[in-house]
Predict the structure.
Amino acid sequence: MILKICDLRVYYFLRDKVVRAIDKIDLEVPEGVVFGIVGESGSGKSTLAHAIIRLIPPPGRIVSGSIFFRDLDLVKLSEKELNKIRGNRITMIPQDPISSFNPTVRIGDQLLDVAIHKLGLSRREAAKIIIEKLKLVRMPSPEINMRKYPHELSGGMLQRAAIAMALLPDPDLIIADEPTTALDVTIQAAILKLIRDLVDDLKKTVILITHNMGIVAETCDKIAVMYAGQIVELGDVYDMLSEPLHPYTRALIMAVPRADREIERLEPLVGEPPSLSDIPRGCRFHPRCRLAKPICKREEPPLRYLDSKRAVRCWLYV
Amino acid sequence: MRLLFYIARRIAWLFFVIFIVVTITFILSHVVPSNPALIWAGPHATKQEIEKAIKELGLDKPLIVQYLIYWKNFLTGNWGVSIHTRRPVIEDIKTYLPATMELAFFAMFVGTTLGVLLGLISGVKYNSVIDHVCRIVSLEFIAVPMFWLGIMLQLVLAYKLHLLPLTGRYDPELAAATGFHTITGFVLLDSLLEGNIPMFIDALKHILLPGLTLATGPFAIVLRVTRASVLEVLGRDYVRHALSYGLPRKVIMFKYVLRNALSPILTVIGLEFGYVLSGNFVVEEVFEWPGLGRYVFESILNSDYPAILGSVTVIAIIYVIVNLIVDIVYALVNPKVRY
Amino acid sequence: MSISSRLIYWLRGALNTLRLVRQSTLAFSGLCIVSALAFIAITAPYIVPYPEDIGAIVHPSLINKPPSLAHPFGTDWFGRDLLTRCLYAARVSLSASLIVVLAGVCIGTIIGLIAGYFGGIVDEVLMRVTDAFLSIPSLILAIAIAAVLGHGITNAIIALSVTWWPWYARLVRGEVINIRNEVYILAARAMGASSWYIMFRHILPNIAGPILVNASMDMGFAILAIASLGFIGLGAVPPTPEWGSMISAALQYGLDYWWELVFPGLMIFIAVLGFNLLGDGLRDLLDPRFRTGRGVPRI
Ligand SMILES: Nc1ncnc2c1ncn2[C@@H]1O[C@H](COP(=O)(O)OP(=O)(O)OP(=O)(O)O)[C@@H](O)[C@H]1O
Ligand SMILES: [Mg+2]
């Protein structure tokens, strides 16, 4: 296991309410896989990613739990020790590339910062590696674009620069927060292939956050489905897609139109996800669930392992 | 190209403001008073002097002609004769301006540097002891009257403890002994350029009290603005992105936070320069600093209106020019500025 | 709504505000200082220990005496009680500053309303002039005006009032433009309300908050400005006690009689601090945007 999360809770303490963005999450990410995390907007995916490198901004806080990276508990490390891991062994591809680059510094210089300060390279060596990585992510004319300011590049190019930056230090774990949202379809496919290759050839591990089931099916080995700050189902991608158990997972998969499925079986999800500061009693999904039973309204289901790989949080499978 | 256009527009603005300033002083000297000749020639002027003023200013002609004559006099440097020094006002201003500018620049430099540094620390260490101390100190510096602060510093540090000289700009005896002559009018600069170290130290000692007194204003405001701006920038995605790479603190603080927090700070530095220039008017009197502020103070005592109006015009124009420079620097440091 | 229920409603609002102000210690201390000063300013002629010392009077036996029980702030160069004069000066300074700020608010509001509401060429001209005024340090302009008008507190007030408005004009114009196109204004217009009616009925209440905050801060700066003008000889004429001119007069006698320099300045400092604290607190109350520090990571 490269990453093992136990009973993680991350809350945002606002003036008049508490947003429970991550609530009781248990997760194991094995080495050398693409691990997908899927969920609707606001389900806490980014918060989970930020919690792993301990960058939850106040008023948010990791309330409890532990995050083991190999055998280090990241929750307990000092800032100094953490900074040896951030940008060296774990890197992150941010969700919004446009706002994630310093607007007053040229793109190349921002990449150089990482190469110089984290890898201890000389300027010349660093520049060489940066160009190499930029070519890898198919940045058009990298030598020229390096010298541009963020506002002079398109979202897609910034996205690629962000990915190149994440690859620079040759990390063990890459957390990619929706890395392909700003890209058009052809480049999206290329980037996803790149991620696949990282894992297959270089034995890296990637946590891929997305809300797109298509990307999951194409790229991931394992997935976890998040709903309202919790994991409702996890398992190998083939099992999950061929036989989704949780009603929410089913709805997500059904929502993807496919040629081999008849139109009638598309069941659109009704209603809104719950507010994380006012979570319903019982199962968090029950207000939107067609199969809800009386117990679903009363008690929260546990995350139950059906076998060593597959787990689901639903009263239907208890 | 767009930058050039922007600069051209700012310079046009400069001329517009100068136009407004000259118009205001014209109104003050020609329209408001019931007897403008008396304003120009002084309250104790003889009949001939008043006659001369009437002729020179064209006071017997229509207002619009007077206005044009006023402009002609303004542009040709004919700003009248000071009633109490009996020298042309423009000569007096040339004599006294360097001392004022030296003091103002010194105060701006010290106040801004300290303000930015402490504001950065205050913002980064948000809600810590140092943050609270900085906030309270800056609130108090804004509230304290400058002339009074100057007197208090003078009373304690110079008068009671004899740590620093009480008044003046430098020790004239030392200047004579070391054969010091000022070329630019900036004593600190000249003594340094001449390699006259004792003189430089003496001038530094003299400028310390008035300079620090004046610096409190920009210090307090710059600190507050820097803190607020830093807090805002700290919440941005790019700071989190940089943090997620565990970049060194210094790099994040200066390259990622401060550089982006700079725009409002620059704006306020320009405004603060006006604060310092106004402060000169009172602080120079307290420390007997031989600058334009003291000149105006004495002109007020003597109802010396040409001197007052001339000095005010110059100070206002300097202020506008400094702000023009600040605007241009602003455009240069901010690659994304929308002109 | 009946008069009494309206009154109760209003009182409840006032109480709530007071409770909120108390939550912030700084704002509360500001409120206390300002209330105390206002009380002193209003009742000064009746509460000062030596009312006759307000005027031009000489006590030859008491000249330049340091603080004592009978004269806690000491006496001045005419032997007058300094405490009496310092307290009475609060009345002079506060009323002068109040007039300056009110005049500034009125002129600025009218210009801002006109510019923002009518837009176009009117706006362009008014705002260019406003910006030009903003580009000139106002105290320096005030010095020129006051000097030409002649000595005296009235002239100082006029000089400051004339230079005090541009800031408010900008503020009001900005707010007017912000809300000019809101639905309820458009509705009022469509129903045929006159421009002036709309402006005063709908726009003014919306901008009262920011104006109040700035006016409170500005009271502090106006006190400072009055004191500075007084110090350079453009303020109150003796024997009227005014903090700035008291310090400047005392300075003529050197630095030995420190109490004549310390106490008037301390009064200015406290007064300005009071208004600044109050303004800061009000801003926090009225505009939560200014409560910074949300989502700030520790580095
Ligand atoms: N700084 C913050 N303060 C308060 N609440 C926050 C903060 N950041 C996130 N949240 C809340 O935490 C919850 C999870 O947010 P998060 O950004 O992790 O969602 P997400 O799954 O990444 O959504 P998206 O797909 O839109 O990126 C949301 O309800 C959000 O409102
Ligand atoms: Mg997200």
Observations:
- Residues 93-332 of chain B form a domain with the MetI-like fold fold (CATH 1.10.3720.10).
- The CA atoms of residues 106 and 270 of chain B lie 15 Å apart.
- DSSP finds 14 helices and no strands in chain B.
